[in-house]
Design a protein that fits this description.
Blueprint lengths: L4 H39 L12 H33 L6 H23 L16 H20 L8 H26 L5 H35 L9 H15 L12 H12 L1 H15 L3 H6 L1 H23 L2 H7 L4 H30 L5 H33 L6 H38 L3 H15 L1
Helix pairs in contact: 1-2, 1-3, 1-13, 1-15, 2-3, 2-4, 2-5, 2-6, 2-13, 3-4, 4-5, 5-6, 6-7, 6-9, 6-11, 6-13, 7-8, 7-9, 9-11, 11-13, 11-14, 13-14, 13-15, 14-15
C-alpha cells in the first residue's frame, strides 16, 4: 500500500520526535520528584534534612529547571518539529544532528541540575544552572532550531498561519532573551538593581515568550485539526500574536512592585499587564468560540479535552494575573506564596495540559499505535483534579498569607505560618496526585514508542520466513 505525504513526513520524524517526547517524560518525572520533596519540606522542615543535597533552596531550583528546560524544552522541540513539518509538507532534515543536539541538551541539563544540588549555582532566575553548562545548551538549541527552520523554509505553501507564527517565534525568542540576559548578567554585568531587574525579566519571559507561544500555537493547530472547522474569528489571531510579542516582555516587570527599583519600572509593568487583556481575549475568542460550537466532539476527543482545559486555565488565570498586577492588590500579594500560583498555573494548568493533548494527538500518527482511551481518560481526570487543587490552594493560601503578613501586630509564627500551613499540606497532596498522573502519562508514551517483546518476536519471525 502506497504511503501518503503525511505518512512519509511522520516516518521521517519518528526517531527524533519520539526521542524528544521520551526525554521530556523522564524530566517530567524528575520534576515531579523534586516538587514533592520541596512541598513536603514546607510542612516538615526536617524532611530529608540529613542530606545536604536536599535543602529546600536547591530542590526548588532543581524542580523549576528540570520542568522548564527538561520537560518544557524537549516537548517544545518535539511539538514544533512535528507541526512545522506537517504544515510545511516537508520531511525532517539532519536526523542524526537532531539526535546529537538533543543528547547534548539533555546531558547539559543533567550536569546543570547536579551542579545546583551540589551548590554551584548562579543567583539569576531561570539561569541558576552553573555557567559551564550554558554554552552546551545554547549550541544544542541552536542546532535544533536551525534544523526546524530549514524544514520551514522548504515548505511548499509560502503563506503561513497562526501555529507557525507562534511556534517559530518562540523558537527565535528564547535565544534572544538568553543573549540579552547573559550579556547583562555574566559577560558585561550590569550594576546595582539593574541585575535584579534583568534576572527577573528573563525568568518571567522564559514562561511568557517561550512556553506560552508554543502552547498557543499548538492550540491553534489541534483545535481546527480535530474539529474539522476553521478557527472562529481567525482574523484576530494576528492581532493577538503581535500583542503578546509587544506587551508580554514588559508586563512581567510589575512583579517588582514594592522592590528597590525606580517606581516607573513596575508602573510600566502594570500598564502593560492591563493591556494584556487584549491578547487574552483574542485567544479566548478564537479557541472557545470554535470549540463550543461542537462541545460533544470536544468531550469525546481526549487530546482536545486536554487542550481546552489548558486554554480555559490560560484565560481565567491570566485575568486573575491582571487583577494582581494592580498596585493596590500587588502590595498585599507581592511577597506572598501567590507567586507559586502564577508559576504553577503556567507550567501545569496551561502549558503541560496542552502538550499532553498534542502528544496524544501526535504519537498514534507517528508510531501507528493508539493509546488506550481508558489510560488517557485516567490521566486527564487525575491531572485536572491535581491542577485544580494545587492552584486553588496557592490562590487562597496566597491571599491569606498576603493579608495576614500586612498585620504587624500578629505573631508571625503562631498566626501567619500556622494559617498558611494547611494550604501547604494541600499542595503536598496535589503534587502527589500530579506525580501519579504524570507517571501514567510517561507509561502511556513509552508503551507507544517502545515495541513490546511479542511484537519484536513477530517481526523477527516474519524476517526469518522471508529469508527462507
Amino acid at each position: 500500500m502506497k504511503e501518503n505525504s503525511e505518512q512519509i513526513i511522520d516516518k521521517s520524524l519518528k526517531l527524533a520526535v519520539c526521542f524528544f517526547i521520551a526525554s521530556a517524560g523522564l524530566w517530567l518525572l524528575a520534576a515531579a520528584f523534586f516538587a514533592y520533596i520541596a512541598s513536603a519540606k514546607l510542612t516538615d522542615p526536617f524532611f530529608l534534612s540529613s542530606f545536604e543535597l536536599f535543602t529546600y533552596g536547591k530542590i526548588k531550583l532543581a524542580q523549576a529547571n528540570a520542568f522548564v528546560y527538561g520537560w518544557g524544552g524537549n516537548s517544545i522541540f518535539a511539538v514544533t518539529l512535528w507541526v512545522v513539518a506537517r504544515l510545511a509538507q516537508a520531511e525532517a532534515r539532519g536526523k542524526v544532528l537532531l539526535l546529537f543536539a538533543g543528547s547534548i541538551w539533555n546531558l547539559a541539563i543533567t550536569f546543570g541540575l547536579l551542579g545546583i544540588l551540589d551548590g554551584h549555582m548562579t543567583p539569576h532566575e531561570m539561569l541558576e544552572m552553573p555557567v559551564e553548562v550554558w554554552p552546551a545548551l545554547f549550541l544544542s538549541y541552536g542546532i535544533i532550531a536551525t534544523l526546524i527552520i530549514v524544514v520551514h523554509r522548504s515548505r511548499r505553501i509560502k503563506d503561513t498561519i497562526a501555529p507557525q507564527w507562534f511556534l517559530l517565534a518562540s523558537l527565535l525568542w528564547f535565544p534572544m532573551l538568553f543573549l540579552i540576559a547573559w550579556n547583562g548578567l555574566e559577560i558585561d554585568a550590569a550594576r546595582g538593581t539593574v541585575q535584579s531587574v534583568l534576572s527577573m525579566w528573563f525568568g518571567q519571559n522564559v514562561i511568557w515568550l517561550w512556553l506560552t507561544p508554543v502552547a498557543l500555537g499548538s492550540a491553534y493547530y489541534i483545535i481546527p485539526a480535530i474539529l474539522g472547522r476553521p478557527i472562529d474569528k481567525y482574523y484576530l489571531a494576528v492581532f493577538g500574536f503581535w500583542c503578546i510579542a509587544s506587551l508580554a516582555p514588559w508586563s512581567v516587570v510589575h512583579h517588582l512592585e514594592g522592590g528597590p527599583v525606580p517606581m516607573w519600572i513596575p508602573a510600566i509593568g502594570t500598564v502593560m499587564s492591563i493591556a494584556m487583556i487584549f491578547p487574552i481575549a483574542v485567544a479566548s475568542t478564537n479557541f472557545h468560540a470554535t470549540a463550543f460550537q461542537d462541545i460533544n466532539k470536544v468531550w469525546n476527543s481526549l487530546p482536545l479535552r486536554f487542550v481546552i482545559f489548558g486554554t480555559l486555565s490560560y484565560t481565567v488565570s491570566s485575568y486573575i494575573g491582571v487583577v494582581f498586577s494592580l498596585p493596590a492588590v500587588a502590595k498585599i500579594t507581592q511577597f506572598s506564596i501567590i507567586n507559586e500560583f502564577h508559576f504553577n498555573q503556567r507550567v501545569y494548568g496551561f502549558f503541560s495540559m496542552i502538550i499532553f493533548g498534542m502528544v496524544y494527538h501526535m504519537l498514534p500518527r507517528i508510531t501507528g499505535k493508539e493509546i488506550a482511551k481508558s489510560a488517557k481518560s485516567f490521566h486527564f481526570w487525575t491531572s485536572a483534579f491535581g491542577v485544580l487543587v494545587l492552584l486553588l490552594a496557592y490562590l487562597i493560601g496566597g491571599l491569606t498569607h498576603g493579608v495576614l503578613a500586612q498585620q504587624p501586630s500578629l505573631d508571625w509564627a503562631s498566626s501567619v505560618i500556622s494559617s498558611v500551613k494547611p494550604y501547604f499540606l494541600i499542595t503536598e497532596f496535589a503534587f502527589i496526585i500530579l506525580a501519579f498522573s504524570q507517571l501514567v502519562f510517561v507509561i502511556n508514551v513509552w508503551k507507544a514508542i517502545i515495541p513490546s517483546p511479542f511484537e519484536l518476536l513477530n517481526k523477527l519471525s516474519l524476517i526469518k520466513k522471508g529469508a527462507t
